[in-house]
Design a protein that fits this description.
With 515 residues, the protein is of the alpha/beta class. It has three domains: 11-286, no CATH class; 293-385, Beta Barrel (Elongation Factor Tu (Ef-tu), domain 3), CATH 2.40.30; 390-438 and 445-512, Nucleotide-binding domain of ferredoxin-NADP reductase (FNR) module (Rossmann fold, 3-Layer(aba) Sandwich). Helix content is 48%, strand content 13%. The chain has 19 helices and twelve strands. The chain has helices at residues 2-35, 40-46, 49-66, 73-82, 88-92, 97-131, 137-142, 165-171, 173-190, 194-199, 201-208, 211-220, 232-237, 240-243, 269-291, 360-370, 408-422, 461-471, 485-498, and strands at residues 228-230, 262-264, 295-303, 307-314, 324-328, 338-341, 351-356, 380-385, 397-402, 432-434, 476-482, 507-512. A hairpin with a 3-residue loop joins strand 3 and strand 4. Helix 12 packs antiparallel against helix 15. The protein is elongated. The two termini are 28 Å apart. 33% of the residues are buried.
């Protein structure tokens, strides 16, 4: 329990603050619109669903401001570099960027649902009040003219009894952009499941770029000003709390109350998303610039089990262990970029990746390099970007666990350790490595290229952790995984179970690769 708190206190605190801000913004906005005299007459038609719609809209703006930040890879790499002297707990939070991205997306979905449901009720109220002929305040407000020349300003967007909700939805800026954003959001969320990402990565890649339509739609969503409130001048002349009860005498010359005038609320969403969008545009410009730098393929190796190794050079390329790059092959797809872990060591004069056939794109890439009499396909590279494995040398004892092609992040680590031992690097804290990879009928390991091949099999994790804890009773042990969630769950539990309550004794810290 002590280790769990030590590892997760910042994550829990950050999550609580984020959830608290969502609750605070929603409640504060709800109460604001419930009490605001500016929307007194609007509430007479819509009731509390107006406040629900506006409160959820504010939370949507807040979370839409955050959604792009966790996927700014260059920003995260910069923060990781500036936090090199920070505590291990603070640095580990950067490894949860995709988890936070997903949580923010789920929160956007929640508030989108609230916003849509609230507006469905709003349009129903607008429609019923427009159809009403009972002379009630709501019907009088709904009948206010849409013709500014007559001196009146409208409150109900449904202009006549013959106007349908569907017509207003698809002919107004707010309605049309709302439909577009909702469709884009549904497609992005449903295509981001683990199954689709692993089996149909192209579907995930293309549909996720619908975020452009979501962001553009959000920026102009409020331009139409469908939700309207009383103008300040009109409130000074005829305050709603004084004049609402005498609405039947608004047209009397002897009455001090006049028909209220209304105006649309100016759009605010763009103010929330402007800075993150500019930051993300700069991120994409930097990615594009780096991707256009020439990549020279120095060696191509075909390994068993359809594994392709590419050794490359690129001017100014500098890497650390465990980092990854994004690769594009224009002859296969101009827009698709796929992440691959670097398998070379920083001490080597090239950088390399290993590609396993796991979908249409990778299969086409391997097939292109297998053709003997064809020119080598052009490759574009963006990166490198940091991961949890960069911290491996900060631990006295490291346990490296890889499943399938998941062994590739640790090839770089193992080779780098070998080079550091050869050079007698005194800054190397790591004294002991655990290892797991694949056996093939080759003289050397297919990934590391070393004669000492790693063992194949599924360890008994309780026995492994118990042995490590006994052998290193006062060490800080880093456990690094590149593999499936089920394995991550087992290893995380073991890290918590075998960490001592005494911080001076053995402590296990779990780290998982995330792309």
């Amino acid at each position: 329990m002590g280790n769990w708190v030590g590892n997760h206190w910042f994550s829990v605190l950050f999550l609580v603050v984020w959830l608290g801000l969502n609750v605070f913004l929603f409640v504060d906005a709800f109460l604001k619109y419930e009490k605001a005299d500016k929307y007194y007459y609007t509430r007479k038609i819509l009731g509390s669903t107006l406040s629900c719609a506006r409160a959820s809209a504010l939370c949507l703006n807040f979370n839409s401001m955050l959604i792009l930040l966790p996927v700014c890879r260059n920003l995260l790499s910069f923060l990781r570099g500036t936090c090199s002297f920070c505590s291990r707990t603070l640095r580990k939070q950067l490894d949860h960027n995709l988890t936070f991205h997903k949580l923010v997306a789920y929160m956007i979905c929640l508030h989108t649902a609230i916003h849509i449901i609230a507006h469905l009720f709003n349009f129903d109220c607008y429609s019923r009040s427009r159809q009403a002929t009972d002379g009630s305040l709501a019907s009088i407000l709904s009948s206010l003219s849409h013709d500014e020349k007559k001196g009146d300003s409208w409150l109900n967007p449904i202009q006549s009894r013959n106007t349908t909700v569907e017509y207003v939805t698809f002919t107004s800026i707010a309605g049309l952009t709302g439909v577009i954003m909702t469709i884009a959001l549904i497609l992005m969320v449903t295509s981001a499941t683990e199954f689709i990402q692993r089996s149909y990565f192209e579907v995930f890649w293309y549909t996720h770029h619908l975020f452009i339509f979501y962001i553009l739609g959000l920026g102009i969503h409020g331009v139409g000003g469908i939700v309207r409130g009383q103008t300040e001048k009109s409130m000074n002349e005829s305050h709603p709390r004084k004049c609402a009860e005498s609405f039947e005498m608004w047209d009397d010359r002897d009455s001090h109350c006049r028909r209220p005038k209304f105006e649309g609320q100016p759009p605010e969403s763009w103010k929330w998303i402007l800075a993150p969008v500019i930051l993300y545009i700069c991120e994409r410009i930097l990615r594009f610039y780096r991707s256009q730098q020439k990549v020279v393929i120095t060696k191509v190796v075909m390994h068993p089990s359809k594994v392709l190794e590419l050794q490359m050079n690129k001017r100014g390329f500098s890497m650390e262990v465990g980092q990854y790059i994004f690769v594009n092959c224009p002859s296969i797809s101009l827009l698709e970029w796929h992440p691959f872990t670097l398998t070379s060591a920083p001490e080597e004069d090239f950088f390399s990746i290993h590609i396993r056939a796991a979908g249409d794109w990778t299969e086409n890439l391997i097939r292109a390099f297998e053709q003997q009499y064809s020119p080598i396909p052009r490759i574009e590279v963006d990166g490198p970007f940091g991961t949890a494995s960069e911290d491996v040398f900060q631990y006295e004892v490291a346990v490296l666990v890889g499943a399938g092609i998941g062994v590739t992040p640790f090839a770089s680590i193992l080779k780098s350790i070998w080079y550091k031992f050869q050079c007698a690097d005194h800054n190397l804290k790591t004294k002991k490595v655990g290892h797991a990879a694949l056996n093939f009928d080759k003289a050397t390991d297919i990934v590391t290229g070393l004669k000492q091949k790693t063992s194949f099999g599924r360890p008994m994790w309780d026995n492994e952790f118990s042995t490590i804890a006994t052998s290193h009773p006062k060490s800080v042990v880093g456990v690094f995984l590149c593999g499936p969630r089920t394995l991550a769950k087992s290893l995380r539990k073991c890290c918590h179970r075998y960490s001592s309550l005494d911080p001076r004794k053995v402590q296990f810290y779990f780290n998982k690769e995330n792309f």
